[in-house]
């Protein structure tokens, strides 16, 4: 495993923690100077908070820990391509680099539907690497929604809605 | 004053609270069924948190208060046009409507640089009304940055950076 894969493996562990709570399995890790500063997973249902995406929680925790809102020198690893909210938060945080696993055809805002990482009109741009451990990242989501469908077919329907809710 | 102006006046009070802390004066109010559920102001510097925009704080507080992440039936009032992060958070929250005061030529994501409120590829759209108490909303920002420049010229330089930091 190279460095990016090692950190993405931690993000995958976070995604599994989300699944264990019945949350859509998305995980994130924020790294500064080679050190993990924050790790987080999607908590939208548990926290009843529409902003509780893995990336946003990791950014907030890292800022608190570092005592500064500018996360220059930092890299965010996340299993799924960020949505507009999270991609915009990385602009606001002046992050150096984003590494993501699987693309998000429904809400991906860093290359798929739009690219907020490279909009010259905004006051910051960040480097992007995609496709790191993509199969594992996408596989966790596929498995989660397959099990959700099966549970629903069996008459129990806990957890988030399908389809439109697969957003990171 | 009509209903929108009455709620925007509360958002303006919040913006003044931000200015009193040395924060860029942006305020927000979240209204559900005609009742104020949350009010907030920009706290980026005080909280050292790049996500602590008025809108995002109001959305989170409203969700906690209502015990649900879906803010359907709710309207957000904010003095400055939201940035991509905040405009995306309103999509994620499934908000009904956004009302803002002044446009933001530097980062406005609800009509100026882009329009995340009406992107048919995303899983939610919301109604937008702009220009409500626009002069007062813009005037607070102009005055704040004028005073900041004067303080800097006098040799004291507290508060946020100018220019690229005028983002809501």
List the keywords.
168 residues; globular; homodimer; five-stranded mixed sheet; alpha/beta
Fold topology:
Two copies of one chain form a homodimer.
Chain A: H1 3-20, E1 27-32, E2 35-41, H2 44-47, H3 54-66, E3 74-80, H4 84-92, E4 97-102, E5 127-130, H5 134-153
Parallel strand pairs in A: 3-4, 4-5
Antiparallel strand pairs in A: 1-2, 1-3
Helix pairs in contact in A: 1-5
H/I helix tally of chain A: 5
| Percent in strands of chain A | 15-25%
- The helix-and-strand class of chain A reads alpha/beta
What's the oligomerization state? homodimer
Strand numbers in spatial order across the main sheet of chain A: 2-1-3-4-5
Number of separate strands of chain A: 5
Our Rg estimate of chain A from Cα atoms comes to: 15 Å
Cα(first) to Cα(last) distance of chain A is 24 Å
Basic shape of chain A = globular
Average of per-residue pLDDT values of chain A: 94
Q: What is the N-to-C succession of helices and strands of chain A?
A: HEEHHEHEEH
How would you sum up the major sheet of chain A?
Answer: 5 strands, mixed
Residues in helices of chain A, as a percent range:
25-40%
Main interface by residue count = A-B, 43 and 43 residues
Low-confidence parts of chain A: none
């Amino acid at each position: 495993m190279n460095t990016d894969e090692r950190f993405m493996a931690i993000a995958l562990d976070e995604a599994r923690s989300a699944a264990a709570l019945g949350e859509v399995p998305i995980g994130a890790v924020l790294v500064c100077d080679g050190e993990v500063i924050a790790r987080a997973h999607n908590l939208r249902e548990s926290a009843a908070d529409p902003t509780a995406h893995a990336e946003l929680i990791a950014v907030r925790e890292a800022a608190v820990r570092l005592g500064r809102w500018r996360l220059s020198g930092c890299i965010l690893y996340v299993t799924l391509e960020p949505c507009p909210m999270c991609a915009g938060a990385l602009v606001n945080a002046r992050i150096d680099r984003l590494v993501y696993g699987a693309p998000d055809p429904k809400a991906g805002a860093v290359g798929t539907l739009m690219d907020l990482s490279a909009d010259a009109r905004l006051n910051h741009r960040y480097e992007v690497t995609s496709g790191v451990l993509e199969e594992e990242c996408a596989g966790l989501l596929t498995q989660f929604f397959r099990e959700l469908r099966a549970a629903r077919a069996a008459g129990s329907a806990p957890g988030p809605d399908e389809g439109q809710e697969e957003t990171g």
